[in-house]
Amino acid sequence: MMLLRAEDAKDWFYKGEGAANIVLGYCGSSLSLVGKVLRIQKVAKGRSRSPNGCFVLSNHERLVWRDIGELLECTSKDAAARAFIQHVMSNLLDSKHVDAGILVHVSKEFLEAVEGNIKSQRPPWRISQISRYDPLDLFSGLKDRIHLAITALFACPQNNFRIFFNGSLIFGGLGGGLDNTVVQSHKAEEAIVDLISPSGLQLASFLELVAEAIFGSGILDKLLETQQLDVLDIEGAIHVYYNIISQPCAICKNLIDAELLHQYSFLHSLSLEESLKIVRGYLIAATAKDCSLMISFSCTEAGHNASDCNSASLKSSNQCYNYKACFIDLDLKTLEKMVHYYKLDQKIVDFYKTSGEIEGNPSILEVEAHLEKKN
């Protein structure tokens, strides 16, 4: 297995980051690494990684994933993440659209050198505009509405839309925020047009091409199906979480609403098997809701398609493109994270209630009727 040392740090540059990982691009001379990226997982200060040789899943997580033998045997978090992608997400999202990647060892000195190299390149986190992007458009299955969603994402990319040209970021802001180089949309458009115009592709056609690839591939259909494995949302799933860990429900003990307590008592009466199924679906759906979609394009002649690519043609420019679409950031969500998701959900609800956007209590799923329908 490859090992990256301190002297290799100069060959990697900052490409972007999310809440959990920093992504580096390769600028060295090794042919096996050209075009590749390196995802480095963030670890909170004062928090250590699991020691090598120990199983990384907790006893309760081993119950949830007990049907995935390869996952149970993993002794590192990275190996578990890869096994989860290979044996769970690939089956749900279609293996041709999923790449589990390969594990690369890095030395402590490499990480320290990289940190020093990229420190000045990491942008401040900020959102400077309100986006008009509507996920319902993107997942509608209608080409016009998908195009509308892509156009809205381009108008206000935040941390949701980036454009790379030959591996270099040309639009979207490193780390998600709109940095000063692209904060004015007309400057961004000029930069993109300058880069893509040699191929004869105009900006409007480029956005049309992205929409055509998403629509033609049907790739979001599988993603939506996977997201819908969350049948109860966190407000219901948190109760069966307490069934699995065999502890009194921290939510119910603070409730005084008799009707809610009755509804939730049904969830607490579910068998362990039913509880495991609900939580497993919730965690898989959480991964599907938090992943990214990467689409790469190359211009080609009509009828000359690469064997591993799909093709899309644009009537407006009479051009044909090969493209590959792949899901990334398919990280395994930990079981204990469900408590965090519930607290976050309640903060969102409280914000809307106090801001006057909604009145009264948010609606509660009719969980008993819903589960009866599913069975």
Automatic annotation (TrEMBL):
Catalytic activity reported: 1D-myo-inositol 1,3,4,5,6-pentakisphosphate + ATP = 1D-myo-inositol hexakisphosphate + ADP + H(+)
GO BP annotations listed: inositol phosphate biosynthetic process
Alphabetic keyword roster: ATP-binding, Kinase, Nucleotide-binding, Transferase
Pfam families: Ins_P5_2-kin
EC number: 2.7.1.158
GO cellular component, one term: nucleus
Keyword hit for Repeat: no
Coiled coil: none
Domain of life: Eukaryota
GO molecular function: ATP binding; inositol-1,3,4,5,6-pentakisphosphate 2-kinase activity
EC category name: transferase
PANTHER family: INOSITOL POLYPHOSPHATE KINASE 1, INOSITOL-PENTAKISPHOSPHATE 2-KINASE
Domain observations: The EXKPK motif is conserved in inositol-pentakisphosphate 2-kinases of both family 1 and 2.
Purpose: Phosphorylates Ins(1,3,4,5,6)P5 at position 2 to form Ins(1,2,3,4,5,6)P6 (InsP6 or phytate).
Protein known as: Inositol-pentakisphosphate 2-kinase
Taxonomic lineage of the native organism: Eukaryota, Viridiplantae, Streptophyta, Embryophyta, Tracheophyta
